[in-house]
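Purpose: get a first structural picture of the assembly so the mutagenesis plan has something to point at.
Setup: two entries, given in the order below. No constraints added.
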Amino acid sequence: MTVGGLAVGLKSTPTRRGKRLSPMVYLIIAVGALVVVSAVRTLSDATDLTSSGTVQAALTAAVPLAMASLAGLWAERAGVVNIGLEGMMVLGTFGAGYAGYQWGPWAGIVGGLLFGVIGGLLHAVATVTFGVDHIISGVAINLLAPGAALFLSKQFFSNAPGGGQKQSPRIEDAQKVTLPGFSSWLGTIENKHWFFVSDLAGVLRGITTEISLLTLLAVVLIAATGWVLWRTPFGLRLRSCGESPAAAESLGVNVYKYKYYAVIASGGFAGLGGAMLAVSSGQFRDGQTGGRGFIGLAAMIFGNWRPGGLATGAGLFGYTDAMALRGSNAVHALLLLLGIALIVVAVLQYRSGQIVLSGVAAAIGVLFGWWYFSSDQVPAELVGAAPYVVTLLVLGLASQRLRPPRFVGEPYRRGQAI
Amino acid sequence: MRNRTARSILLGVAAPVGALVFAALVCALILAVTGHSVGDVVDAMSTAAQRPRTLVNSVNSATVYYLAAVAVAIGFRMKLFNIGVDGQYRLAAMLSAALAGAAFMDSVPSVLRIAMTVVAAMLVGAAWAGLAALLKVTRGVSEVISTIMLNSIATYLVSYLLNPARLAVTTAGSNNIGTRKITEGGQVAGFEVSGSSTKVFGLVLLAVVVGFLYWFVLSRTRFGFELKATGLSESAAVASGVSVKKMVVISMLLSGAVAGLVGMPQLLGSSYTYSLDFPPGLGFVGIAVALLGRNHPIGMMVASLLWGFLDNAANSLDISGVPREIVLIMQGVIVLSVVVAYELVRRYRVRAEQQAVGSALGRTKPLEEVSA
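Result (structure tokens, whole complex):
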């Protein structure tokens, strides 16, 4: 039984070995994608598609999502599903608000982290010690956390200077850094609007100008997670709890202990994501997370339960978020990009013999293309749905390429035979 | 046959009661630490319990929660997590409100008009749940993930449709927008209660009917047996000729159809329009109520009444200076502790059964003798 029981329809394809793509291939894919984006930009005259401003906004939006998906990764790699991410993020935003306005942004980050850890601990006690279903515990935390955060907010912020019942006083933003000299030089190239070159300059300028230290912290944490989980004995043991806890236990791994570590880390990362959200937007507000925990979960699935993949997913979803903020002309161009991506999926599926899937992907791709050419803009209300639609499309059309941890979501008792 | 000894009933009740007591203690502790008087809260809540208006509102809330809980429970019974009840009922309420409020409906006879609204809501709910079912049986996508995604997509879809350029009209004198108001012929009259200015939703009867059907189908029909069997042991069900894929699709559609009903009592009995302030998050309340009531038709009724009362009593807390969110904390703690309590009781039962079997078989041989 997998998450929610009933593993119907799951086609178990034999895992192909040696299919890891080399960094060079990734670079080629990235350049190829940029060429496509650049072509779309030239065709549709949506300069916002690759402007440095968009890239900056996308990074700011992507950071909390990346933290949420890292949180999901830590828990799920140890076999615990954590849909309480949203609630833990809410706790993180409160923690950041409380510590942040009194002692500065970095204290806020630590405060958010600690509050997230409390949420993670709760989830760990329920799922690991008491063997409660992971989904149920997650839902309960999602019910509990917003109530608790609002209760505490009314308790502590109502009478604070500049605070209110549903919001904290202002938190200072974290420091920002710029690569000196480089930025203005790239700016001149960007403004020429040459094919590809200006786009590359825009993207590079976006990632080297006015970068928050929080963004850099996020990048470090993603890399560190990859290193810890895949390059250390600790990580191997932790992941073995998600793949086959009985086998791990037979080798002397204390499964409960590793699950506790993982779920607490998960809560910490979710809290951190909430804290980064609160600090970068300047205060704690009720309902601030707005489903970002769930988008983080989506980014993790999109990224195939791997750090590099989830960073890509978070970047992509942050990008759509930034586009939605920056006006509909650029958003309209996204439809064409989505259509092209679906056609690529269709071709790939056709080549691997999945004729039906290929047909479905092609049909949806054509539909998006038709939508692009038959309209002038996308209603702003629909843009926010993009991450969720993309995730459903990935799950529906390319799920044979996904490989979640084998034992994820199943309760495990010590000494249990499989 | 299960034998209902006094002990097994006591154990069954012990878990929810224990969880309630534990939640009350936690909340008392939180209140004490944050400098509020526990006595004041108890006082405010018991005063609220004596007001007919609060009780009527509690029953109304419970009606809605009960429908949401049944929708969730249909899935739970076969280990399907329909987290998507939330999106299903919002989309269904919005679209059926637009249908019921449309100008051409004014000339349709009242009964037919209400029936059309309710059926439309069920169809929309079932269709939205059907997407998740389709992804599950054709592609093996976990319904937890797909329904979470569909919830969010529903949110954006509703906000897209709820626009004056599409299905909504602006309400005069406020910045609220909603669907066109349902005229009197499409409304469902409520029941007057003396001493209360609000009426009990007429569709409380719908909740009763749905509860009865839920019980009847699950415990008196072959389909219900197959559904429960699939939930208890998929392989056993398959071996006895049940098509699991078919069961997934049917139960997801049924769950979605009931989810579609969730918005109806409110829509047809009190607000008459789907507007920006239509209550959100009822699907998650449904999950909580189904858990507390253990998917049992009567248990869920008790749980939904408790939930409804807590929600409405919370209004009187703000007046006494205690943040009303203490009730949300209490509800969250109840859910978390009740599932822990059920698990503990289950473990205790297993151990007690093993002991009972052991003593029934008489003295067991010492370990050394067996291994020798």
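The longest strand of chain A covers residues 176-177.
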